[in-house]
Write a structure and sequence with these properties.
It is a single chain. The chain is mainly alpha-helical. The chain is built from 16 helices and no strands. It has helices at about 5-35, 40-45, 50-75, 85, 90-105, 110-120, 125-140, 145-155, 165-170, 175-195, 200-225, 240-245, 260-275, 290-310, 315-320, 325-360. Helix 6 (about 110-120) crosses helix 13 and helix 8 crosses helix 14. The chain is globular.
Length: about 375
């Protein structure tokens, strides 16, 4: 693909918008078909299961890192120019924000990217939760929640330790990291085969993971040809969701870039995948309690994702693919927050309901007998 020719025809911003839309559509379609979801994987793991949901997430994760490392090795991408490594990041924000995000995604039954995919197939719960997520993310970035975010982010940053490069700080070479990631990919494929998730779901999971290095390559290529500065980035959904929301509230043409093309692209890709597979279905809330739970979770994700500097995809996969320390801290915190919330809320609630039903069940009469 000749990006220079496209830039001459549509302008740099037009190409960035188009690229974000195309890559987003691929991500949305593959995510819808693979059922990629960090919440599902974390809940499965927290309940002592090593199953298909975890296998899909591991395939995505290891594919994204492997592909990014191959790009770097071929000189098609320079990781140190990415925002996560080129500028100071908040370690305290990563830890606290990750915990809040993990808690929120269990309450909302999906991370920000999963909510976007589900909303495209007719899930109105996910659609409303996604809107709340975007509003709170924007309020956390520039609105009334920004002072709280800054207060939590400032105490500990990567300036205190000198770098955000996990490989540099740990002394692990790229070769050793590459071997470890490759072994992880093989292990995830073995797990997928063992759990019989199917060839198509496995291929779709590969497709989701491959979108991360594809976006790195695209934005890096645009930095080389664009007249104005272009941010080197890959997939994330906290900032882009807030930007897309503001696009509808701003004058036309003022916010055209890769991020703004990404969110609509994911929606379109997921919708088309659901349409062709016959999986479109309108779903709503089941009572006020469910609605309060979803919206509270979405709000926690919006604030937590902005505080952490990324969501389950932005930090948990994209940031991790370039070995940004704060991204790995965020990812670990998301897992901890999700597993703790599943144990404290869902499993405890389920146990209480079972005990209530047992107490309410009438005792068998003498005539009925006891089996």
């Amino acid at each position: 693909m000749d990006l220079e020719l496209l830039a001459d025809q549509f302008g740099d911003k037009g190409v960035l918008l188009l690229g974000g839309g195309v890559i987003g559509a691929l991500f949305g379609a593959f995510a819808q078909q693979s059922r990629f979801c960090l919440r599902a994987a974390a809940v499965e793991f927290s309940r002592g299961e090593i199953g298909g949901k975890l296998a899909i997430w591991l395939i995505v994760f290891s594919t994204a890192i492997t592909g990014t490392m191959l790009l770097s090795a071929e000189g098609l991408f320079v990781a140190r120019e990415a925002r996560q490594l080129a500028s100071p990041q908040s370690l305290s924000g990563a830890a606290i924000g990750g915990l809040l995000f993990g808690t929120g995604m269990v309450l909302a039954r999906g991370c920000s990217s999963r909510l976007l995919v589900l909303s495209a197939t007719g899930n109105l719960r996910a659609l409303l939760s996604g809107l709340v997520f975007a509003v709170v993310a924007q309020a956390s970035l520039h609105g009334f929640l920004s002072p709280v975010r800054e207060a939590l982010a400032n105490p500990l940053t990567t300036l205190n330790i000198g770098s955000n490069d996990l490989l540099l700080l740990s002394g692990v070479s790229e070769t050793v990291a590459g071997v470890a990631v490759t072994l992880g990919l093989v292990a995830s494929l073995a797990l997928a085969f063992w759990r019989r998730i199917g060839v198509w779901k496995t291929v779709a999971a590969f497709g989701v993971g491959a979108c991360i290095p594809l976006a790195w390559w695209f934005t890096h290529a645009m930095t080389l040809i664009a007249f104005e500065p272009v941010q080197l980035e890959s997939l994330s959904f906290t900032g882009p969701s807030a930007d897309t929301l503001m696009l509808f509230l701003s004058p036309p043409g003022t916010m055209i870039d890769f991020d703004v093309g990404l969110v609509p692209g994911v929606f379109i890709g997921a919708f088309l995948a659901g349409l062709f597979s016959g999986e479109l279905e309108l779903l709503g809330f089941q009572g006020g309690d469910a609605m309060r739970r979803y919206l509270a979770g979405a709000a926690l994700m919006g604030f937590g994702g902005m505080l952490a500097g990324g969501c389950a995809v932005g930090a948990g996969v994209t940031g991790a693919s370039i070995f940004a320390l704060t991204a790995w801290v965020t990812l670990f915190s998301i897992w901890i927050g999700a597993m703790a919330t599943d144990w404290l809320v869902d499993r405890k609630l389920s146990d209480r309901k079972v005990r209530s039903l047992e107490k309410a069940r009438p005792a068998p009469s003498v005539a009925q007998g006891v089996e």
